[in-house]
Design brief:
This protein is mainly alpha-helical. It has 1 helix and no strands.
């Protein structure tokens, strides 16, 4: 998944690292929400 560069990062390697961190953070939140909904 490619995210829009809202951070003004011009280095492609750094931008890829930031995108990866954002993507992983979103997946973790989604898993926690799913688990908490199952426990209701």
């Amino acid at each position: 998944m490619v995210l829009e560069n809202k951070f003004g990062i011009t280095d492609s390697a750094e931008l890829a690292r930031v995108e990866e961190r954002i993507s992983k953070a979103g997946k973790c939140r989604s898993r926690r929400l799913t688990k908490s909904l199952k426990n209701m």
